[in-house]
Amino acid sequence: MANEILSRKDIIKVGAEKAGIGYKKMRDAMKAMLDATVKGVSDGKDVHFVGFGTFGVKYRPARSQVKPGTTETFQLSDTVIPRFKPGKFFREKVAANNVLKKKYASRYKPKTPKHVQSAAQPPVVK
Questions:
Q1: How does DSSP classify residue 47?
Q2: What's the predicted TM-score (pTM) here?
Q3: pLDDT averaged over consecutive 10-residue blocks of the chain (126 residues)?
Q4: How do the domains of the chain map onto residue ranges?
Q5: Residue 47's closest CA among 81, 79, 84, 15?
Q6: Torsion over CA of 6, 91, 15 and 50, rounded to 10 degrees?
Q7: Most distant CA pair in the chain: distance in Å?
Q8: pLDDT tens per residue, range 19-37
Q9: Could you give the 3-state DSSP secondary structure of residue 97?
Q10: Which of 16, 22, 54, 80 could disulfide-pair with 26, CB 3.0 to 4.6 Å?
Q11: Rounded to whole angstroms, what are the CA distances from 21 to 12, 29, 33?
């Protein structure tokens, strides 16, 4: 089951309709907003959209890794990566969607810990 994709063009179209402005104006406004967000984050600032979330950076220190399938180790240099932390409204809106819960719950089967025995099977006494 593939995820549905909402493209940038789809978002611009919906935003233009809701705001009652033309597609080109909405496209330009969205580009300016995204450019400002990228500029702020790349300058090391957190960019807050109240209720939606916060864009920022996360530092990853240098570390050594083991190449899969071999025992060869190699060094990864330190880096800074972009991060996104969803806001309360955004998290609650996604969590309240029962269609998503059903869609994703079917992908995961709960794992029973080995130390927990089934109620149908009595414990083995030796």
A1: E
A2: 0.68
A3: 79 95 96 96 94 94 88 90 94 85 75 63 64
A4: 7-44
A5: 84
A6: -140
A7: 78
A8: 999 999 999 999 999 999 9
A9: coil
A10: 16
A11: 10, 11, 16
